[in-house]
Amino acid sequence: FIKDKGHKHFVIVDAGMNDLVRPAMYEAYHHIVPVEKKDRPYIKTDVVGPICETGDFLALDREIPSVERGEYLAVLSAGAYGFAMSSHYNVRPRACEVLVEKGSYRVIREREDYSYILRQ
Asked: Running along the chain, 120 residues long, what does each successive block of 10 average in pLDDT?
């Protein structure tokens, strides 16, 4: 979802602070790029999650390539911290994890579903 508030440009993504808490916890930097590479202008953007918390962000005031609705974004260098620091906060299932290596990709951890959370 993309939202412009005049002076502020937002990209709202499926991932939230429950998936990658490092930016919210201590402003850790993760490079964020559209998966599909193409020429596009850069725009100052807040990349935020769906959780109703002011700290639910992946990037604030970040110059990133412009993004179209429905487009996939890659949050780089998050793998070592993603699952280990993730939580079920706000009753959100943990995200799937995808390994990208040498031009190919594969799912290394499937997304959880709500039945998994309820069994815990």
From this structure: 90 94 92 93 96 94 94 86 87 87 91 89
